[in-house]
Structure formats: structure tokens, C-alpha cells
Amino acid sequence: MLIKYELIIYWSESDQAFIVEVPELPGCMADGQTYLEAVTNVQIVIQEWIETAQELGRTIPTPKGRLLYA
User: Fold this and answer.
1) What are the angstrom distances between the C-alpha of 51 and each of 5, 12, 48, 61?
2) Which residue ranges does the record assign to the HicB-like antitoxin of toxin-antitoxin system domain (predicted)?
3) pLDDT for 18-67, tens place per residue?
């Protein structure tokens, strides 16, 4: 699967893991002990998020690319 959504990746000291958030998909996030593991896990979670949204008849956001934050 080709990820086109922006990913925010950071180290969580309290979780002792890398956290990956997908801002365009509400509630979509994953973690991993390594950077690569976290990104691999979020690929699975994104696919599951999309499949669940489709099953529920919800709109799937079109990836916007890089998001800007103030």
C-alpha cells in the first residue's frame, strides 16, 4: 500500500516507543519500538481505518499532502 497521508512521527519517552499519528484520519495512530516498526504498523492501521470507514459508509478523506501548522 502506498501511503499518501502525512505522518507525524515522534519519540514518546513515557511510552518508550515511536508514535505515528495520521492527522487526516481521526484517531489513526500506531507505535513501535523502532522508527521502521512504527511506520510499518501505521501502514496496517491506515488500511484498517479505511476498510472500517468503507464498511460504515463514511467518507474517506483525500490525502492533502503536507499539512501546515502554525
Assistant:
1) 15, 28, 5, 13
2) 8-64
3) 999 999 999 999 999 999 999 999 999 999 999 999 999 999 999 987 76
Q: Are 8 and 66 in contact (CB under 8 A)?
A: no
Q: H or E element: which one contains 31?
A: strand 29-32
Amino acid of residue 51: E
Which amino acid, one-letter code, is at 52? Answer: T
| Cα distance between residue 65 and residue 16, in whole Å | 28
- CB-neighbour burial class of residue 43 (10 A; exposed 0-12, middle 13-18, buried 19+): middle
